[in-house]
Design goal:
CATH superfamily of the largest domain: lambda repressor-like DNA-binding domains
Radius of gyration: 17 Å
InterPro entries: Cro/C1-type_HTH, HTH-type_reg/antitoxin, Lambda_DNA-bd_dom_sf
Order of helices and strands: HHHHHHH
Largest sheet: none
Number of helices: 7
Distance between the termini: 49 Å
CATH topology of the largest domain: 434 Repressor (Amino-terminal Domain)
Number of domains: 2
CATH class of the largest domain: Mainly Alpha
GO molecular function, one term: DNA binding
Number of strands: 0
Shape: elongated
Protein name: Putative transcriptional regulator
Keywords: DNA-binding, Transcription, Transcription regulation
Length: 103
Amino acid sequence: MDIEKIAKAIETDIGEALPELRQALAEAEAGIGRVTTPEQILLREARVKTGLSQKEFAQRINTPPSTLRDWEQGRFKPPGAVVCLMRLLMNHPELSNELASPV
């Protein structure tokens, strides 16, 4: 991994210097610290946007709360269909109400 190249690209993207970025990238490369995946961020943000707790959200998407926790904490990667649903809920959080209705 070219840490300097990646750091410059990130700083150019956001338009400002990030003094601790190189250290963070070096730690990530070394396996130090926690890595958060885009799927984890998407899941958490979608749930927060709906205003539901983990338990309530898990019920809405018909999955055990422990599975949702595992996805949010990065222990397991959610299936593609779940990621797709989260993208829909990010743009239309009100759709979570439709998931509460019996089929």
